[in-house]
Write a structure and sequence with these properties.
Length: 377
């Protein structure tokens, strides 16, 4: 088994368990952000003076898949709707960790206008990839005009050390994250989240020009006081059955108790109050145009009734694919090629057993979300 904490890494490529395939589940979330993003670009963005160069857009934590490209095209189309931008060059910067599968993303790019065969969509914007952490500076000062980040702000810049310290009240024994953990462990996660959020907005304040736009949406929670309550109660989420699978294999002697205690995912859903505090943290470089909490946002995968949930096996495979796209590489790196498949297989079995209960409930798929549109002062 590999030592140390897992590094956040999504599954690359375009196979069944890749993030590119599973990102279709999140495609509907774009509807939360696009109205505010359009409003901010059309009515609040102050583009650079004519003749001073291109308009620069950045997608932080871009990953891969159609959702990333849809946002880029949406931003370009919205910018081109402004008379003072219509003839300007637009550069889309796709930003993510070096482990992101940029090769797959680049292969998914439509051909540049005039370079295709006329049979499909063409793009009018230039593109590049920028590897690095969103919790660090990535661009020159005042060089960006529009930026977004989608489903990334719940990832921590680092996992708190106290949750691995057996002598600490925050020691996260028997859990893989803050959900359902002790108040001390959950608060350690929440404090790491607050520090990372402040750093994110500090870095973007340096990079985004005055009058620029920053929009985001992220899984969130309503209650600041209880970070151990991370998930909407009805959500179909892989963490609870995954923890159950790990504990079953510990009890059977397949995995060690120490392996579970030392594995902690670097994720914490922030509350809307914590987001506001991070945005307004001195020197408070952004003006908040929108910051809303959506208590119950429904997720609907493509062709759910016909394919995903038609029987227990299909549902189990769907859950495995969702797990593999987001956490599979982390678990594989941590447990290694011999033990990781056993854990995933037990996880599948548990999900298949849950199928009758989920079916009777109508397969509820909900998340609590925070969405925002900010303007650089």
């Amino acid at each position: 088994m590999a030592s140390g904490l897992p590094a956040p890494r999504t599954a690359g490529g375009d196979g069944e368990g890749s993030y590119s395939r599973q990102s279709r589940l999140w495609s509907g979330m774009g509807s939360m952000l696009t109205p505010s993003l359009k409003e901010a670009i059309l009515n609040h963005l102050s583009p650079p003076a004519e003749g001073s160069g291109a308009i620069h857009y950045a997608d932080f934590g871009c990953s891969v898949g159609a959702n990333t490209l849809r946002f880029a095209q949406f931003v370009a189309d919205t910018l081109k709707a402004r008379p003072d931008v219509i003839d300007r060059d637009i550069v889309c910067h796709f930003v993510d960790l070096p482990s992101n599968d940029f090769n797959t993303l680049f292969k998914q790019l439509p051909p540049f206008v005039g370079e295709g065969d006329g049979s499909g969509e063409e793009r009018t914007w230039f593109a590049d990839g920028v590897p690095g952490s969103q919790y660090r500076r990535m661009f020159p000062r005042s060089s960006l005009h529009v930026a977004i980040t989608a489903l990334t702000l719940h990832y921590l810049s680092e996992t708190p050390k106290s949750i691995l310290d057996k002598s600490s009240p925050a020691y996260n024994k028997g859990k893989i994250g803050p959900n359902g953990s002790s108040p001390a462990a959950a608060e350690a996660y929440a404090e790491a989240s607050r520090q990372g959020l402040r750093k994110f907005f500090e870095c973007r304040a340096e990079e985004i020009a005055s009058g620029g736009v920053l929009c985001f949406y992220t899984p969130g929670r309503r209650d600041r006081a209880h970070p151990e309550h991370q998930l909407f109660e009805e959500i179909i989420h892989f963490v609870p059955p995954f923890e159950k699978a790990w504990k079953e294999l510990v009890n059977e002697g397949v995995l060690t108790e120490e392996s579970l205690d030392a594995f902690n995912i670097p994720i914490c859903h922030p509350s809307i109050e914590e987001l506001r505090e991070a945005i307004e943290h001195p020197p408070s470089a952004f003006r908040i145009e929108k910051l809303d909490f959506i208590d119950k946002f429904a997720l609907t995968p493509d062709n759910a009734e016909e394919t995903v949930f038609k029987d227990a096996q299909a549902y189990g495979q769907f859950m495995v694919n969702m797990f593999n796209s987001g956490m599979g590489p982390m678990v594989g790196d941590y447990l290694g090629p011999e033990l990781a498949p056993a854990l995933v297989n037990r996880f599948r079995q548990i999900c298949e057993k849950d199928y009758p209960v989920k079916k009777a409930a109508g397969f509820p798929m909900y998340m609590s979300m925070c969405v925002a549109a900010l303007i650089r002062k």
